[in-house]
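Long-time lurker. I teach an intro course on protein structure, and each term I like to show students one example going from raw sequence to a predicted 3D structure in token notation. This year I'd like something fresh instead of my usual example. Would anyone be willing to generate the tokens for the chain below so I can use it in lecture? Attribution to the forum is fine with me.
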Amino acid sequence: MIRLESVSKRYGDGTVAVDDLTLEVADGETCMLVGPSGAGKTTTMRMINRLIEPTSGHIFIGDEDVTKVDPVALRRRIGYVIQQVGLFPHLTVEDNVGTVPRLIGWDRARVRRRTAEMLELVGLDQARFGRRYPAELSGGQRQRAGVARALAADPPVLLMDEPFGALDPITRDRLQGEFLGLQQEVRKTVVFVTHDIEEAIRLGNRIAVLADGGRLEQYDTPANLLGAPANQFVADFVGADRGLKRLSVTGIPPDDLARPPVVGTGSPVAEARGLLVASDSRWAVVLDASGALRGWVGLEELEGEGLVGDRAHRMEATVQVSETLKQAFSEMLKYDAGWVAVLDGDHYLGVLTPDSLHAALRRSVDRADGSPPEPSPLIEEL
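-- Reply from a regular --
Happy to contribute to a lecture. Here you go:
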């Protein structure tokens, strides 16, 4: 746990970098610090490991007030990852990763074991990359090595200062996904600075929006931040398209799924046609005997004799129920589909249509602020 209590940073010329900031980051959660340039994001983060000394206030890691401990010893038990990576250019990747464990007195065998473990954790093969120098790595590989070094001494707290900001979009997206998977495994308490609200929404459990001078405007979950901005500053910062951004943090609610007629692969064509006519439907979902999705069939295919399984079309657009409305919407656009089948593993649950997607998003926003949301124009057009 990290707790900041009325923390401020003021300089001699009267400049206020951070103004009376109070917030708490729960154990194992990721707090994203966002805001315009000059909002004190990096200053806030650097005060946690005392690279910058606060003017006033208290900073706790667990029950310990870190403003009263030796700053060098403090930094050795806090992982730190920056945009420029910060690897020592004259050391190999292995030696870089083992730097902090060596400094705190681990023996050589333990350092070697931990280095191998960390390189494997971040997806760098030790045999291939361990003896290379930072200049011999790509930008994404250097970032991975930087994360491995930050985690090597198993710190409870990880500070990340725009670690993916200098990477190309494809590498950045991949490393963001890897960070999410890594955090699920190691469950560190993370403070992460970014200028990118999309990155904050994707990676954060909670987001702190800072204004000029380090004033905290809102500290909330991504869903609540998008659904119920605290004021106009926050609304403007997260963007007028916050309804669309909310798609990425809203899960697929099974109760909002449409449930068109279902027919089995072994059903006679005539029986299936009768079902569609009786329900005034133009198509049906086709399942096998175990409930697994096998496609769809239209009324026009249900002529003559035979079995439904021989007439079914493959359903390209599918998502898992654990995914988000954004992923479902992407599948609709990718396949130019009017619906997306929602699965739990192989088991079919229902379909998400533009109407049901819109309804799920609106209900999600209603839950966030207790009032009807402003409609998103693009969603309304669906």
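Some talking points for your students: Residues 266 and 307 are 6 Å apart (CA to CA). The domain at 254-360 is CATH 3.10.580.10 (CBS-domain).
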